[in-house]
Amino acid sequence: MTSTNRPNVSRRVLFRTLTGAAATVAAVTVPASIGEAYDPGPDETKARYRESEDVKAFYRSNGYES
Predict the structure, then answer these.
(1) Residue 66: CB partners within 8 Å, gap ≥ 6?
(2) 3-state secondary structure 14-56
(3) 57, exposed or middle or buried, with CB in 10 Å at 0-12, 13-18, 19+?
(4) Is the pLDDT of residue 55 over 60?
């Protein structure tokens, strides 16, 4: 009988190594693509709250006296 020196690598160790390598590659490449900030534009930054009479009445009737 001949004895071969095969490394004892189980499936779990193999998949754990491959998963760790894939996560490392993903972690290295993801921050490179995050480079620009979101610009909401003038429509999303305009003031929407108006202190009208019905808003004043709502706060007055619910006890939010100012």
Answers:
(1) 59
(2) HHHHHHHHHHHHHHHHHHHHCCCCCCCHHHHHCCCCCCCHHHH
(3) exposed
(4) yes
Percent of the chain with pLDDT over 90: 2
d(CA 60, CA 66) in angstroms, rounded, equals: 9
pLDDT at 59: 86
| Better pLDDT: 61 or 46 | 61
Structure tokens at 63: 């006890």
Element (H, E) at 57: helix 53-61
**Given CA atoms 48, 53, 54, 57 in this order, what sign does their dihedral have?**
positive
pTM: 0.32
